[in-house]
Write a structure and sequence with these properties.
Blueprint: E1 2-9, E2 15-18, H1 20-30, E3 35-40, E4 46-52, H2 56-69, H3 83-92, E5 95-101, E6 104-105, E7 111-117, E8 123-131
Antiparallel strand pairs: 1-8, 2-7, 3-5, 3-8, 4-7, 5-6
Length: 132
């Protein structure tokens, strides 16, 4: 297994950031060709997902819905005041796997990988593990 990582800076409390470009750049730099790529977010208030990458309104709608589903309310007991972010991150999950064929992410026509920030703005790390 080979690994790599990159940093991402978010500008909002809740935002989904497309990261295909950074992932593809590392695939090319490392020469990873055929195998399984795991994309992992090592944070308890952020996540990662695969979803439509053609219309930015999809990511906006998902972010809006998550804010409605899990609002930041005064009733949470966690002292840091970001329990909503922990819940949202758990709902999305901390990793996804993608097949890589010929150095290309084997995603559907409309799919993209998104870093999901729920406690920003922050500097974050995205980790990649490739098994070829």
């Amino acid at each position: 297994m080979e690994t790599a990582e990159f940093q991402i800076r978010t500008a909002q409390k809740n935002v989904m950031v497309p990261i295909n470009g950074q992932v593809i750049a590392l695939l090319q730099q490392r020469g990873w060709q055929d195998g399984i790529l795991t994309v992992c977010v090592p944070h308890t208030t952020a996540g990662v997902t695969i979803n439509e990458n053609a219309d930015p309104d999809v990511a906006r709608d998902m972010t809006w819905f998550m804010e409605q589903l899990v609002p930041n309310v005064a009733g949470f007991r966690h002292a840091e005041g970001n329990s909503d972010a922990h819940i949202k991150a758990s709902l999305f999950g901390s990793s996804v796997q993608v097949i890589v064929r010929g150095g290309i992410l084997w995603l559907g026509t409309w799919q993209g990988i998104y870093f999901c920030e729920f406690d920003g703005p922050r500097s974050r790390t995205v980790q990649l593990a490739f098994q070829g």
